[in-house]
Design goal:
Distance between the termini: 63 Å
Shape: elongated
Radius of gyration: 26 Å
Low-confidence stretches: none
Helix content: 55-70%
Number of strands: 0
Largest sheet: none
Length: 74
């Protein structure tokens, strides 16, 4: 949402430029899923991403070790 406000309107709001004072708050659609279900799903995704992150961290460390070993042999 957006709105062009006049100086008079802004002054009436105590010179606050908080958008909510001029356009209100957008209504949210009701989610079909329960909050707990959403949190459990996101937690599962986070666990998978953390595991992948750990694997990538190990791969990067091994690659750096290999590069340093190869460089030292030159």
């Amino acid at each position: 949402m957006c709105k062009v406000s006049t100086r008079v309107e802004i002054e009436a709001q105590g010179w606050s430029l908080n958008p909510g004072r001029y356009v209100g708050v957008a209504e949210r659609d009701q989610d079909d899923l329960d909050f707990v279900d959403q949190l459990q799903e996101l937690s599962g995704e986070l666990e998978i991403l953390n595991s992948e992150s750990y694997e990538l961290e190990e791969l990067i460390a091994n690659n750096i070790t290999s590069l340093l070993r190869d460089y030292a042999q030159e």
